[in-house]
Design brief:
With 83 residues, this protein is an alpha+beta fold. It is built from one helix and five strands, in the order E-E-E-E-E-H.
Length: 83
């Protein structure tokens, strides 16, 4: 099962819109988000904290998203999940 949605939030005073897809498997769920033209997988680790990784670490994409932007996306996901 997968469901697509867009996160909208302010980052450094600029409205950001990040497209995400929720992917659910038997025992876990992942968010596949396009952050600054890089596809990232966001999922919770065993301790319940989000971790982020590129969906294709071998791509030739030299432009990586700012870590603070990735953190802002994670913060927004956590805010939504806690509602």
């Amino acid at each position: 099962m997968s469901e697509s949605f867009t996160l909208s939030f302010l980052y450094k005073g600029v409205l950001q819109q990040v497209d995400c897809t929720l992917r659910i498997s038997r025992f876990k769920y992942q968010f596949l988000c396009t952050i600054d033209n890089t596809e990232m997988i966001l999922e919770k680790d065993d301790e319940g904290n989000f971790r982020a990784m590129e969906s294709d670490p071998f791509s030739n994409n030299n432009q990586k998203p700012e870590p603070s932007l990735v953190k802002a996306v994670i913060d927004e996901l956590e805010r939504i999940l806690s509602e």
